[in-house]
Write a structure and sequence with these properties.
Layout (H helix, E strand, L loop, with lengths): L5 H6 L5 H52 L3 E6 L6 E8 L5 E3 L6 E3 L4 E4 L3 E2 L2 E6 L8 H4 L14 E5 L11 E6 L5 E6 L3
Antiparallel strand pairs: 1-2, 1-7, 2-3, 2-4, 5-8, 6-7, 8-9, 9-10
Length: about 190
């Protein structure tokens, strides 16, 4: 008969309480050490997603202007004075801008510091595209009205995340539109 002692059989059944506590302590320390990095990664993703969403909306507006042969714009405004919103509008023959029903209004999270330098049109900032896809459309669309020449300093929107507070971290996303209608996405650190 090959009988194993009782103590050997008991030890092979599972883990002791001390072993479980040591493993939980190691996992807890790992989570404490990695928490700031995880939160930073989430903040970077949120910032990138918000900027890419605006970039996609601007590109859709430009393509809509080219496709329909009607001037379109993205109007940036503050509905309640606290957060930023933007929507696509098209230019009507009677000289008014009307919202495009197929492109619902979007908002920018209050978690970001937003700086819009697009030209001010009707008390709001607007990025308008001509049927040729050029920016700004006002220069082409109404030659009888005097609009300032294209100003490179008035063609961008900047999102800055205060949560990204590490030194030398790129905490801003800048979307710039050039006169030909191309949209540049850039990352930079705030000053």
């Amino acid at each position: 008969m090959n009988a194993t002692p009782f103590s050997k059989r008991r030890a092979s059944r599972g883990f002791t309480l001390i072993e479980v506590l040591v493993v939980l302590g190691i996992i807890g320390m790992f989570m404490i050490v990695s928490y700031p990095s995880v939160m930073n990664t989430l903040a970077v993703r949120n910032l990138d997603n918000a900027a890419r969403q605006i970039q996609t909306f601007l590109q859709q507006t430009k393509l809509k202007a080219v496709d329909t042969k009607i001037n379109h714009r993205v109007r940036f405004f503050r509905p309640t004075g606290t957060y930023w919103a933007y929507e696509m509008e098209r230019y009507e023959a009677d000289g008014t801008w009307v919202p495009v029903a197929t492109a619902p209004r979007k908002t920018i999270s209050e978690a970001f510091v937003v700086t819009v330098t697009f030209p001010i049109v009707d008390s709001d900032h607007a990025a308008s595209f001509s049927p040729m896809g050029t920016f700004p459309a006002e220069v082409i669309m109404t030659p009888s009205v005097t609009f300032p020449a294209f100003n490179p300093a008035q063609n961008s929107i900047t999102l800055q995340s205060p949560k990204l507070d590490r030194p030398d971290q790129m905490d801003e996303r800048v979307l710039s539109i050039f006169m030909g209608g191309s949209i540049q996405y850039a990352k930079r650190k705030s000053a």
